[in-house]
């Protein structure tokens, strides 16, 4: 399921660290519509099999804030999980037409919710536009430290992305998925490194176009649920070019 949601704001300014505000909106709306589902998704370390992105038309990015002159933006949502899709759709519908607190002195109102058709990928090659930055995070469980890699270090970028995919998909597909993941080939096209602010931290990430060669079921997985780490926090959303 893919959704295109048009949101309006009372004021043109939102914080640079806006993703945490969107996540708060998700949690509040899901808690009100299906508290049991909310607890299962956010009350544990359950894998978040969805991704999302935003598009701010004619936005001006400043050090601590983003200026959106039209006071409107697009929220794109995607998931390959039917239960997750249904619950988020119901939550968004419940918020439609209502003003809700978004950031300090600003409110958000969902105006329209549109389902976007996405055909199943049948070929072994796909070119994706990156709608929200890809995070390649290597987490050391012993030291509890994170290392982030961008397209500037292509070898580690690919290695960490494959590790992330293996961790995410092994329970769903079994051990054989590891071999298919290792055979994935990532070819950057007009990609570049960028840094984004998230929960007061600055994370190295990558944007642009990415060509991926691999089994169609894996291409569908990354198109539907995102690529990399923190997809549920608004990173790694892709669309077919």
TrEMBL record:
GO molecular-function term, one example from the UniProt record: hydrolase activity, acting on ester bonds
Protein name in the entry: CRISPR-associated endoribonuclease Cas6
Chain coiled-coil ranges: none
GO BP of this protein: defense response to virus
Matches recorded under InterPro entries: Cas_Cas6_C, CRISPR-assoc_prot_Cas6, CRISPR-assoc_prot_Cas6_N_sf
Protein source organism: Vagococcus entomophilus
Keyword tags: Antiviral defense
Pfam families the UniProt entry points to: Cas_Cas6_C (PF01881)
UniProt domain CRISPR associated protein Cas6 C-terminal: residue ranges: 121-240
Keyword Translocase annotated: no
Domain of life: Bacteria
């Amino acid at each position: 399921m893919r959704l295109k949601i048009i949101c309006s704001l009372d004021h043109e300014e939102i914080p640079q660290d806006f993703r945490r505000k969107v996540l708060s909106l998700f949690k509040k709306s899901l808690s009100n519509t299906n508290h049991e589902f909310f607890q299962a998704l956010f009350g544990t370390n359950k894998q978040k099999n969805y991704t999302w992105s935003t598009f701010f038309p004619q936005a001006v990015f400043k050090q601590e804030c983003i200026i959106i002159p039209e006071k409107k933006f697009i929220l794109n949502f995607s998931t390959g999980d039917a239960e997750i899709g249904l619950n988020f759709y119901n939550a968004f519908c419940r918020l439609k037409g209502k003003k809700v607190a978004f950031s300090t002195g600003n409110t958000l109102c969902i105006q329209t919710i549109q389902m976007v058709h996405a055909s199943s990928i049948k070929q072994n090659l796909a070119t994706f536009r990156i709608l929200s930055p890809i995070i390649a995070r290597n987490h050391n469980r012993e030291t509890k430290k994170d290392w982030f890699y961008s397209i500037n270090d292509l070898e580690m970028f690919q290695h960490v992305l494959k590790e992330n995919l293996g961790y995410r998909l092994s329970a769903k597909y079994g051990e054989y998925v590891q071999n298919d993941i290792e055979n994935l080939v990532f070819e950057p096209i007009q990609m570049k490194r960028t840094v984004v602010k998230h929960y007061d931290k600055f994370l190295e990430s990558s944007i642009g176009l990415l060509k991926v060669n691999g089994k169609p079921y894996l291409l569908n997985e990354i198109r539907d649920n995102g690529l990399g780490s923190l997809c549920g926090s608004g990173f790694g959303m892709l669309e077919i070019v």
